[in-house]
Design a protein that fits this description.
The chain has one domain. The longest helix is centred in the C-terminal third of the chain and has 18 residues. The N terminus is likely disordered. The protein is flat, with a radius of gyration of 34 Å. Strand 11 and strand 12 form a beta hairpin. Strands 1, 2, 3, 8, 9, 10, 11 and 12 form an eight-stranded antiparallel sheet that branches. Strands 4-7 form a two-stranded antiparallel ribbon. Strands 5-6 form a two-stranded antiparallel ribbon. With 387 residues, it is mostly beta strands. InterPro entries: SSUH2_homolog.
């Protein structure tokens, strides 16, 4: 029986949310070696490990699908059908204060429209931002290697645990993290494939000769006329500095140890998939401005799996919630394990302020929690005056 994964979430993390009882299905692809060029290990260097047949050197085999749940998946708790949606609004004083701060931040804006302008009408346009976040755990495997210096060798001692049976320490919900774990009972010792177990490779600088043409005399042995080159003692060649004249260098793969410990690494990634929807309004404010502000959180629901929002005043938000919840279930359950979902609705308040100045109508907008102002048609953009 699969052992629970111990973590900060409790002893049942990974077995009750939902419970997974069977090992992951083996991948069908054969090990590949050509993707790494001449230095890639040969395919016969790796043992066949049940449950890891598709593992290749350097990764690239894709994420492993989680095993099917051994018990029915938990049913999400349905939220209240008619929450109390509080719609905030700003006062005329707040609109004036925000307008004054905006103008004072502009070096060439006159404050006369702020002082003399008369507000004639204020219209509220509430824009809603719906966001769905799905916190997932993904697992992939790759063959790895390191110089053999006496590490434990355990391949074949007993069957290796499946990729989703190995304990991993997750971060807090919705925090990105990555963990690499050496899979137990997959480690074996092989001769280094690059140096063929010699521990050294021919020097690439001198092509294994141990020497090269003298840079002072260009191989002639003389500097000028009959003066012997003192740098190479007239030989015309000098010892190769890369290999100290040996003609070979220590193998960079096995570090001269001649053997490699090869094993399977499990790469566990925790990440958050995010999607959001912004309900359009007819205020006239450019939508790109809304990305610069935060909104007032009206609704928040976090659990293993969430239900689509019900009963929200803006029908398009409920429709977006239903679509995104469905899309996330389809998208992430194929290659990952869903650990938690969170959905929020923010109200981004937008107030359109109509005012008169010197007998002409003008408009500015106050929006977001930050009470930012947009006034594209500000009538007094030069503070110079005639004395």
């Amino acid at each position: 029986m699969e052992k629970p994964i111990v973590s900060d979430y409790g002893a049942n993390y990974g077995t009750i949310n939902p419970v997974y009882g069977s090992p992951a299905a083996a991948m069908a692809a054969a090990p590949a070696t050509s993707i790494h060029g001449p230095s890639a290990p040969p395919a016969n260097m790796f043992d066949t490990v049940p449950g890891y047949e598709g593992t290749i050197a350097g990764g690239g085999g894709g994420y492993l699908p989680p095993p099917p749940p051994s018990v029915p998946m938990p049913v999400p708790e349905q939220g209240p059908s008619s929450p109390n949606w509080q719609i905030p609004s700003i006062s005329e004083d707040q609109a004036r204060e925000s307008f004054a701060m905006y103008v004072s931040s502009k070096c060439c804006y006159s404050s006369d429209p702020v002082k003399e302008g008369v507000i004639t009408n204020m219209e509220s346009f509430n824009t809603y931002r719906y966001r769905l976040e799905t916190f997932i755990e993904s697992r992939s495997t790759e063959w790895s290697q390191e110089p053999y210096t006496g590490q434990p060798v355990d391949a074949g001692v007993q069957p290796a645990p499946g990729p989703w049976q190995i304990a991993a320490q997750p971060p807090a919900f919705f925090q990105e993290h990555k963990q690499t774990i050496k899979v137990p009972y997959t480690s074996s010792v092989k001769n280094c494939h690059l140096c063929l177990g010699m521990g050294r490779n021919p020097c690439t600088t001198c092509a294994g000769s141990g020497n090269k043409v003298c840079w002072v005399c260009n191989g002639s042995g003389f500097r000028r006329s009959d003066d012997r080159c003192m740098h190479c003692n007239g030989r015309g060649r000098e010892n190769c500095s890369s290999c100290n004249g040996n003609g070979s260098c220590q193998c960079n793969t096995c570090h001269g140890k001649r053997q490699l410990l090869v094993f399977i690494n499990l790469i566990v990634k925790w990440s958050t998939g995010k999607d959001e929807f912004i309900a359009q309004d007819s205020s006239g404010l450019r939508v790109e401005n809304l990305g610069k502000v935060s909104g007032k959180e009206l609704f928040k629901d976090a659990q293993y799996m969430v239900y689509p929002v019900r009963g929200f005043p803006d029908v398009s938000v409920g429709q977006a919630s239903e679509r995104l919840v469905r899309d996330h279930q389809v998208k992430y359950t194929q290659t990952s394990r869903i650990l938690q979902q969170r959905q929020t609705i923010e109200l981004i308040p937008i107030t359109k302020v109509n005012y008169m100045w010197k007998g002409k109508p003008y408009v500015y907008y106050v929006y977001g929690n930050e009470f930012k102002v947009s006034a594209d048609d500000y009538p007094a953009t030069c503070c110079c005056s005639v004395m």
